[in-house]
Write a structure and sequence with these properties.
The complex is a heterodimer of chains A (about 270) and B (about 375). By secondary structure, chain A is α/β, with parallel strands linked by helices. Chain A has a single domain, classed as 3-Layer(aba) Sandwich (Rossmann fold). Chain A contains nine helices and ten strands. In chain A, the strands form two sheets. Chain A has a six-stranded mixed β-sheet with strand order 6-7-8-3-9-10, sandwiched between helices. Chain B has about 375 residues and is mainly alpha-helical. Chain B folds into two domains: about 100 residues, no CATH class; about 210 residues, MetI-like (MetI-like fold, Orthogonal Bundle). In chain B, helix 5 crosses helix 13 and helix 12 packs antiparallel against helix 13. Classes of the chains: A alpha/beta (about 270), B mainly alpha (about 375). Chains A and B meet through strand 6 and helix 3 of A and helix 10 and helix 11 of B.
Chain lengths: ~270, ~375
């Protein structure tokens, strides 16, 4: 097992030569409670490179969602710093698009309008036709080519999350943050959406961070799986590089001879 | 065609006719027959039952007052007077009829009388208009105001005036309460600082509002050509009725789903976009609930306010009939009661239809 993890991987360039896109330095998150401070994250260090797909795995309540919302700028940073493309994170912004666990579509708008509201913010100078073009392109990519004008409420959960993915990619963000994006879906739909996500990511190559507590999902999606220790005082416990070539195919990944070793390694970490 | 009719009916709040239409269309006969019985026939039966009980009650009251009158005549003037009173009551003579709760039949007659009265007054108005048409043309050329009919208003005119007042009051309430509600809802500190004001003024009686408005309007408006009583009553109606909308709007705005707020933050929407694209649509259902309460409160307080402000309308109609004490006054008051109730119900239905048309429906997901 140790030998496997130290194996040279020719398909992935050396991390050092690639630009760092997302850096967390000495990151700390404290929630004040009447009984004193509750330290969720402490002394957390994380570096994610340009174009890398990272998944973060950990027990529920370990603070992985807290970490993601802090990167997104939706949650205050108690100590340390987060840099996105060398700029420190101060507030939320469209350069860090978020796919939320619940689709969070605006129910009074159609699928297209839900994507449009973001596109309008990011491409203010584009013409109306160009903006519609962008929205339609991404909705088409997530398989909603025939449902542009459907109200968000008339779409199924899985379809709503597809719109959520389209909305995030359409922002052309520097970092894509996925907060347990498929947690509320049944396993069949989840598999479908993982494929959709990887397919569109393959084209855009946006740096992506996905929170998950599903071991298989974390392996299938990511170049690197980051394991967080259980809170309080959670930090990065270990990490695992997944060297499978892209574009990935679910069948190939599952049948890969190393797959169950990776899986066992992650489960072993989570069970301790 | 059929599904379109059903949709329209539902929107109008006449959904109870739906099974009948489906029945005529030959759809699921048994189920729709049962539904029709439940939704349309049962209410009809209960209405008949209500009229029956009313009739019985009115008759009991009538008999009790009639015997009291006879007894009184006997005690005060002797047996002969009592006999005379008895035959007088039995003959249906207006001068000695017991004055009590009118029966459904009497109310129906009063309704017919009011309707005839309306036709009569409309005819008079028409005649008057024809008569002064030429003079009015001349006056218009000279830049003078028109001569208008100043006779007694009919019952329908009173309804019209009342609706006008309530509409003005409702609009006033909406234009005050919704913007203030949004502003208060957006800020925690504003909400806490204004909460005491809302809590104290919300339960204040319409009568007190009327007096307050009267104090202010009396000094502010000195132009005698303005309709002071209308202004006073619609402002009072607005002030009484706006609280529900104010509270609901601020609650709706402050409780917008956190996910939507996060979306707005990630997209970096500015304040205007945030309010009009996210917060307002998200809180529309609650705002409309508030507006619905506002309409029904406005209609309810209107009657009392008109009565006190002596502005024309249903309220003063009821009061005048009560003071008048004519033979059919009581019956006319009951007619007014039903009219008030039905109009209130219709206003609520209209609001409900507007609401379901305007707001998104989360439950269809």
């Amino acid at each position: 097992m140790e030998a496997l993890l130290r194996k040279e991987i020719p398909s992935i360039p050396e991390p050092e030569v690639r630009e760092e896109m997302l850096v967390c330095k000495d990151l700390r998150k404290v929630y004040p409670t009447p009984k004193g401070d509750y330290v969720v994250l402490d002394d957390l260090q994380l570096k994610i490179h340009q174009g890398e797909f990272v998944s973060i795995i950990g027990h529920s309540g370990c603070g992985k969602s807290t970490l993601l919302t802090m990167i997104a700028g939706l949650n205050e940073i108690s100590g340390g710093k987060i840099f996105v493309d060398k700029d420190p994170v101060r507030e939320a912004g469209p350069d860090r698009a978020v796919v939320f666990q619940s689709p969070s579509l605006l129910p009074w708008l159609t699928a297209l309008q839900n994507v449009m509201i973001g596109v309008r913010q990011v491409f203010p100078t584009a013409s109306k036709a160009e903006k519609i073009e962008i929205c339609k392109y991404y909705l088409d990519k997530v398989g909603l080519g025939n449902d542009f004008d459907k109200k968000a409420t008339s779409l199924s959960q899985g379809m709503q999350q597809r719109v959520g993915i389209a909305r995030a990619f359409a922002l052309k963000p520097k970092v894509l943050l996925l907060d347990e994006p498929f947690g509320m879906l049944d396993s069949l739909t989840r598999g479908e959406l993982q494929d959709v996500l990887l397919e569109i990511w393959q084209k855009e190559k946006i740096t992506a961070v996905a929170i998950t507590h599903d071991v298989d999902e974390s392996i299938f999606l990511a170049d690197r799986v980051i394991m967080m220790t259980s809170g309080p005082y959670a930090r990065i416990g270990d990490e695992l590089t997944i060297p499978y070539p892209r574009p990935r195919n679910r069948k190939d990944v599952l049948e890969h001879p190393d797959y169950y070793d990776y899986r066992a390694y992650l489960l072993d970490f989570l069970n301790h | 065609m059929k599904s379109k009719t059903i949709k329209t009916l539902r929107l109008l709040g006449l959904g109870f006719i739906e099974p009948l239409i489906r029945l005529i269309g030959g759809e699921e006969q048994q189920k729709n027959l049962r539904l029709f019985f439940k939704q349309a026939l049962l209410p009809l039966i209960s209405i008949l039952l209500f009229i029956l009980i009313w009739h019985g009650g009115a008759r009991a009251l009538y008999n009790s007052e009639a015997s009291a009158r006879i007894e009184k005549a006997r005690v005060e003037q002797g047996e002969a007077a009592a006999k005379e009173m008895e035959s007088c009551i039995a003959s249906g003579d207006i001068s000695c009829q017991p004055n009590t709760l009118p029966s459904p039949v009497q109310v129906y007659h009063a309704y017919i009388a009011l309707w005839k009265d309306h036709l009569e007054i409309s005819r008079k108005k028409e005649e008057f208009r024809d008569k002064v048409a030429e003079t009015n043309e001349q006056r218009a050329e000279q830049g003078l105001s028109e001569i208008t009919y100043t006779g007694r208003p009919s019952f329908l005119d009173q309804i019209g005036t009342s609706l006008k007042t309530v509409a003005a009051g409702f609009l006033l309430a909406m234009f005050i309460a919704v913007p203030i509600g949004i502003i208060i809802g957006l800020s925690d500190s504003l909400r806490t600082s204004f909460n005491w004001l809302i809590q104290i003024f919300k339960p204040v009686s319409p009568v007190v509002w009327l007096l307050l408005v009267f104090m202010v309007v009396k000094t502010m408006i000195t132009d005698p050509s303005m309709d002071k009583s209308f202004i006073i009553s619609f402002i009072s109606v607005g002030l009484c009725a706006m609280w529900a909308t104010l509270v609901n709007t601020s609650m709706g705005v402050s409780n917008v789903d956190k996910d939507y707020i996060n979306v707005a933050k990630v997209l970096k929407l500015n304040i205007g976009q945030n309010i009009f694209k996210i917060i307002l649509p998200a809180s529309l259902p609650l705002i409309f609930t508030g507006l619905r309460i506002t309409v029904s409160v406005a209609w309810m307080v209107l009657i009392a306010i008109e009565l006190l402000a002596q502005s024309p309308g249903l309220g003063s109609f009821v009061w005048e009939e009560f003071q008048n004490g004519a033979n059919d006054s009581n019956a006319k008051i009951i007619v007014a009661m039903f009219v008030i109730g039905i109009i209130g119900f219709l206003l609520d239905r209209i609001m409900l239809s507007v609401q379901s048309f305007m707001t998104f429906n989360k439950t269809t997901a």
